[in-house]
Design goal:
By secondary structure, the chain is an all-alpha fold. The chain contains 34 helices and 2 strands. It has a two-stranded antiparallel ribbon. The radius of gyration is 40 Å and the shape is elongated. 33% of the residues are buried.
């Protein structure tokens, strides 16, 4: 019986592998034997030195990259394809990837990380990142990128690199960094490049080095219109109108910017006559030209000419309207400001600056209804973004209209607050007799780290004066000098004189005035005289009134206060003497009026020199009104007492 050997499966696999190895070795032996070294002619290039395949914009991955919507998830997928295919090291692909990332401020830092992974980045990639860092993130970060990445990796710059860096220096106002970049410009030989020269002229002008700007301008005789305009604008911004006009006359050609720069220069210098001459010579004008002239006349409060120019404009923008609204606020014609706002609404949409002027007018007129409408408009309009200035104007309006709860609500919702915001709240609480809340607001201001200024202490001292807080007033008057190193001004002394006068401390008030380091004005002596009237101190009133009349003989207030003090004490002969003095000097009291706004209706009542029977009738009506108010208050107290007892 014969036994037959059968190979196992593992043995079969080994024999198969051995066969493959054998065949492979035979193929290798068939090749030419390798050389130990190559001659220089036939030496093959190393793998790293082989040129990358040529890439075109029509490549599918680049087309996908161009159409990328901007989401990081989609970009990461394309980025992965570029890495796997080995195309990311291609300058074209890397540049397009960086450009896509720099399209959004949120992904610029991701572009920096991608840059760090590139073996041989070029100037285009660096310029793209730096440009977006300057405009979207922070100019200092752009300068840091240049030194830490571009210089560190020895990436050679081109003529687009340095204007970006000079722009960064202009934005941060650093002449030291600007001079360092200028040195590198000279090192790389770009000092004659027009684009570079123009940026240097602008940078030196912004930093106040107008002589250095002129030196760059004079480096080369070849200049374009931008070079001339940059130099003229630099002279204007630095207040040197004479050299600017001389250069303007030497210009081979001018454009609208050239004319507008000179007009703005004369307006800024207060020479409106020269500005108007140049304005009339302009071959054509745009909105900037008209707005500049209107603003010039608005600055000197020439309402007539400003209105004439405003109505002559072929068309207006929001800036034109805002200049006129601000002008009416400046001259305290608040009614006309609101009327103009009503006309503006029919032509264009308001912005933040518009509403600041309108709210200021509402605050001074007590137009709570109009102010509340503006607040509603701000809430419902997504275009309006309330900044610190607008929010402060809104809470000031509520504070002056007596709606302190609404003012506090606006204040609490402000993400950022200025010292003016705090001052408005302190002022509002103080003027409405809530001195405790005003002082509490001041303490909160200190806790939050906001630095009080002289206006803050005027508001605090005024709040103390309105509520008769003599001790607190003296404390904050000392705190201002002792802790915050703020020297008291006339306004602070005025508040203290008012505070002491209301409390009946007339001698202390007079002594404070005499010890003032500066000359006491009519407001201070007037406050003291008012205190004399409250406390019927006719002896001191005569001394103070004489001092007031010496300071300002044409001010009728001193005569009237003194006359009222004499009348209250029954000294009718003295009253007649004062009135004869007034008549002899041609002083008459202006007609007084009170203005009340009830919803959309406004009423204004005047009090003339009425006859005796009219005065009696008026006093009788006021007496009846006072009686009704007292009765209603008493009924409310009884009702509240009944409810509490039950």
């Amino acid at each position: 019986m014969g036994v037959r050997f059968r190979p196992s499966n593992s043995a079969a696999r080994l024999s198969s592998i051995s066969l493959e190895k054998f065949l492979k070795s035979r193929r290798n032996l068939a090749r030419a034997p390798p050389k130990l070294w190559y001659d220089h002619v036939h030496e093959p290039p190393e793998e790293d030195d082989r040129p990358l395949p040529l890439l075109k914009l029509s490549h599918p991955i680049l087309r996908t990259l161009e159409s990328c919507s901007g989401s990081m998830k989609e970009f990461n997928q394309i980025h992965t394809q570029l890495l796997v295919s080995g195309l990311l090291q291609q300058p074209l692909a890397a540049g397009r990837a960086v450009k896509t990332l720099c399209s959004s401020p949120d992904s610029v830092q991701h572009a920096v990380l991608l840059f760090e992974g590139l073996e041989e980045p070029d100037a285009f990639i660096c310029n793209t990142i730096m440009r977006n860092l300057v405009y979207l993130i922070d100019p200092c970060t752009a300068l840091g990128f240049y030194y830490q990445h571009m210089v560190h990796k020895c990436v050679p710059p081109n003529h687009y690199t340095f204007p970006i860096l000079v722009k960064a220096c202009s934005e941060i106002g650093s002449i030291r960094e600007g001079e360092k970049i200028h040195a590198r410009i000279l090192k790389f030989g770009f000092e004659l490049d027009l684009f570079v020269r123009n940026s240097l002229i602008h940078m030196y002008s912004v930093c106040g080095k107008i002589g250095d700007a002129r030196a760059v301008f004079d480096v080369c005789s070849i200049s374009d219109l931008v070079t001339w305009n940059s130099m003229i604008d630099g002279y204007v911004k630095n207040g040197e109108i004479g050299p600017a006009r001389k250069l303007f006359e030497e210009m081979p050609e001018r454009d609208l910017f050239s004319w507008n720069s000179m007009v703005a220069g004369y307006v800024g210098n207060g020479d409106l006559q020269a500005a108007e001459v140049l304005f009339n010579k302009m071959p054509f004008r745009d909105l900037v030209s008209w707005n500049c002239m209107i603003d010039g006349y608005a600055q000197i409060r020439n309402v007539k000419v400003a209105c004439e120019l405003f109505h002559l404009m072929p068309y207006r923008n929001i800036v034109s309207w805002n200049i006129m609204l601000a002008l009416y606020v400046r001259i305290k014609d608040y009614d006309e400001c609101l009327c103009m706002f009503d006309r503006m609404i029919g032509e264009t949409m308001p912005n933040e600056a518009t509403l600041v002027s309108v709210l200021t007018a509402c605050a001074h007129l007590g137009r709570f209804d109009m102010g509340k409408w503006v607040h509603s408009y701000i809430k419902n309009n997504r275009v309006i973004e309330p900044d610190v200035l607008l929010s402060t104007a809104l809470l000031t309006m509520y504070a002056k209209c007596g709606a302190m709860d609404l003012a506090r609500d606006v204040f609490d919702k402000m993400p950022k607050r200025s010292v003016v915001s705090w001052n408005s709240m302190i002022m509002g609480y103080g003027m409405h007799g809530q001195a405790d809340k005003a002082l509490e607001m001041f303490l909160n201001m200190e806790k939050r780290g906001a630095m009080p200024n002289d206006v803050t202490f005027v508001s605090v001292l005024s709040a103390c004066a309105h509520s008769g807080m003599v001790l607190e007033g003296w404390w904050y008057f000392g705190l201002m000098r002792r802790v915050y190193k703020i020297e008291p001004k006339v306004e602070h002394y005025g508040c203290m004189v008012d505070l002491l006068g209301r409390a009946g401390l007339m001698k202390d008030s007079e002594e404070l005035i005499r010890k003032m380091p500066m000359e006491g004005g009519t407001a201070l002596w007037g406050a003291l005289l008012s205190g004399c009237r409250i406390h019927s101190n006719s002896e001191l009133a005569e001394i103070v009134a004489k001092r007031l009349i010496e300071l300002d003989p044409k001010d009728i207030g001193a005569y009237l206060l003194l006359s009222n003090i004499y009348a209250a004490e029954g000294k009718w002969d003295e009253v007649e003497i004062v009135r004869q003095m007034m008549e002899g000097r041609g002083l008459t009291k202006k007609t007084g009026f009170s203005q009340v706004h009830i919803e959309e209706f406004g009423t204004r009542s005047f009090v003339e020199n009425a006859s005796i029977h009219r005065k009696s009738m008026m006093y009788s009506i006021l007496s009846d009104m006072a009686a009704h108010i007292k009765l209603s208050c008493r009924d409310n107290e009884v009702e509240n007492l009944t409810v509490s007892c039950s």
